[in-house]
Write a structure and sequence with these properties.
This protein is 40% helix and 14% strand. With 318 residues, it is an alpha/beta fold. The strands form two sheets. Strands 1, 2, 3, 6, 7, 8, 9 and 10 form an eight-stranded mixed sheet that branches. Strand 4 and strand 5 form a beta hairpin.
Length: 318
C-alpha cells in the first residue's frame, strides 16, 4: 500500500498542477471562439419589465437602450407560423385557455393589458402594443440584431422552420440556438449547424463535473454561449421549487458550484461567452460582472443600460 501511495500521490499532485496551469492558460491547448458580438446587455423576453413581453414595442424599446441581443422563445401555430411566445398556452398572457398550436396566427388573442414580471414578483408591465408577432416579422424589422431563440420541446416542424428563417435572412452567425434539453439541441444543430448554440442543462452539469475533476482544460467545448441563472437570485426573484427549504438549499449549493471566477475566466478565455439571467437589480448586475461574465439578461434594459454607462460598460464586460 505504501508503495502504491508513493507513486499515486506524486502522480495526482502532478496532474493537479497541470490541470490548474492549463485552466488558467487554456489558449495553449485550444483556439478560442471568435465572438461575433459582445452580449453585454440582453433583453429577456425582449425587455418584459418595461413593456409587454415579446411585442414589437418592447423590442423597439430594447434597441433604443442599445441592447446587444434579444432573448426570445418560439412556438408554432396551427397554420405553421413561428411566433414569439414564452408560453405554450395563452392563459397567463391573454387569459384564454388555448394552446398556441391549436390556433391559427390570425386567431391569436391579444396580450392582457398588464402582465406580472416573472423575475420581479409584484411588479407589472404595460404597453400599447398587445399583439403577438411572428419570428419572420421580427427578423424583417431587426435584420442585424443578434437574438437567442429558445425552443422548449422536440417539435421538428418548429425547429426546421426556425432554421429556414435564419438561413433566409442570412442570420446564421447572429442567431443562437438555446434550449434546456439536450435532445432538442441535437435536433436544432442538425437543422442548422451553422448557428452558434448554448449549453443545455445536461451539458452544463457535465461542464461542472469536468471542472471539479480537473479535466475541463483538456476537453473541447463546441458551445459558444453559457446562459446560466445567477444563484444569488434564488429565493429572492427566482423560485424553482414550491418548497422554500428546497429553494434555500438550491441557492447554497448552486452558489458554491457555479460562482467560480476561475471557471468563468476559463470559459471566457476559450471564447465561450457567459451570460447570467435574469437579473433586475443593480446589486445583481454588480455580482455578475464582478464574476467576470460577458453579459447579463434583464427584464429592464433601461436599468442595465444606465448601469453599464455609469460603470464604463462594466469595464467592457470585464
Amino acid at each position: 500500500m505504501s508503495s502504491l501511495l508513493s507513486y499515486a500521490l506524486p502522480a495526482l499532485g502532478g496532474y493537479a498542477m497541470l490541470s490548474i496551469f492549463f485552466l488558467r492558460r487554456p489558449r495553449l491547448l485550444h483556439t478560442p471562439w471568435a465572438p461575433v458580438f459582445l452580449p453585454r446587455l440582453g433583453a429577456h423576453r425582449a425587455g418584459s419589465g418595461e413593456l409587454l413581453e415579446n411585442t414589437m414595442e418592447a423590442m423597439e424599446n430594447s434597441l433604443a437602450q442599445r441592447s446587444d441581443f434579444l432573448e426570445l422563445d418560439c412556438q408554432l401555430t396551427r397554420d405553421g407560423v413561428v411566433v414569439v411566445s414564452h408560453d405554450k398556452t395563452r392563459s397567463r398572457q391573454s387569459g384564454v385557455n388555448r394552446d398556441v398550436g391549436s390556433l391559427d396566427f390570425e386567431e391569436l388573442p391579444l396580450y392582457k393589458e398588464e402582465l406580472e414580471v416573472y423575475f420581479s414578483p409584484g411588479r407589472f408591465a404595460r404597453g400599447s402594443d398587445r399583439h403577438m408577432v411572428s419570428l419572420e416579422d421580427v427578423f424583417q424589422r431587426f435584420p442585424r440584431m443578434p437574438m437567442s431563440v429558445e425552443v422548449k420541446e422536440e417539435n421538428e416542424e418548429l425547429i426546421n422552420k426556425i432554421a429556414g428563417l435564419v438561413r433566409h435572412f442570412d442570420r446564421n452567425e447572429i442567431t443562437i440556438w438555446a434550449t434546456e434539453k439536450s435532445s432538442v439541441m441535437k435536433k436544432c444543430r442538425a437543422a442548422n449547424p451553422e448557428m452558434p448554440f448554448s449549453f443545455t442543462i445536461g451539458r452544463a452539469i457535465w461542464l461542472l463535473l469536468l471542472y471539479y475533476l480537473g479535466l475541463l482544460p483538456f476537453v473541447s467545448i463546441p458551445e459558444r454561449f453559457f446562459f446560466c441563472f445567477l444563484p444569488t437570485i434564488i429565493n429572492r426573484t427566482y423560485f424553482p421549487f414550491s418548497c422554500s427549504g428546497l429553494n434555500q438549499l438550491a441557492a447554497v449549493i448552486s452558489k458554491w458550484l457555479i460562482m467560480r471566477k476561475s471557471l468563468i475566466h476559463h470559459l471566457e478565455q476559450r471564447g465561450v461567452q457567459v451570460v447570467f439571467w435574469c437579473l433586475n437589480e443593480e446589486s445583481d448586475f454588480e455580482v455578475a460582472y464582478g464574476l467576470g461574465a460577458s453579459g447579463v439578461m434583464t427584464d429592464y434594459p433601461t436599468a442595465l443600460r444606465r448601469y453599464l454607462d455609469n460603470h464604463g460598460g462594466a469595464a467592457q464586460a470585464s
